[in-house]
Amino acid sequence: MQVAVVRLAPVVISLALVVGVVSHRPALARPYQPAARGTPIDHVAVIGDSYTAGTDEGGQGSNAWTTRTWLALAHQGVQISPDVASEGRAGYVVRGDHGSVFEDLTGRAVHPDDALVVFFGSRNDQGVNAMQMAGMAHDTFDLTRRIAPSAKLLVIGPPWPTADPPFDVLYVRDTLRSQADWAGATFIDPIGEGWFVGRPDLIGPDGVHPNDAGHAYMAEKIAPLIRAQLSRWA
Prior knowledge:
This protein has helices at residues 50-53, 65-75, 102-109, 130-147, 167-183, 212-229, and strands at 4-7, 11-12, 33-34, 42-48, 80-86, 116-120, 152-156, 186-188. It is of the alpha/beta class.
């Protein structure tokens, strides 16, 4: 896995769609052209772990939930200029494959003109010190507020593929809910909503990471959440 940090200009294809691609592999060339002058654009940053970065199980390149989300929103006329910073095994406290935590990724992806910042995860924080978890989540959201004071925050807690997540993951979820409330963010609970429960077809052979179908499923869940946060489209 690798860290992916990309700031993409809005583009349109033949049906006036805006598509941002964050990939571990070079994306296939497509006949892009600049968005029409005067078209409203929303800058959105996404911070995440391997559920966002994609893995060998699925979600790489055009199959990533982020790319699918931008495409789905473009079909609805919602034009997004995205920045995605994601790193396998990263969390708010736990450092990822390249030594980053979510606060580090926030500093790379978030910009003053962002309309929305999305955090997704992380199950990687299970088992960390309680005070440290709360403190680093607080600091991450505070940094976001300082960089992009006008941005809305959407905090999506850690998902779990079965109906019986361990206590440590529930603690991470509850801590993030509390810190999201402090930051004035909207909190979404994939565990409480049972996103992957009873859907082993959406998880790869490792039993942890979503396959391509799982990323398509996450895009179906997350695209309307993002649209609802963007005031001109709500």
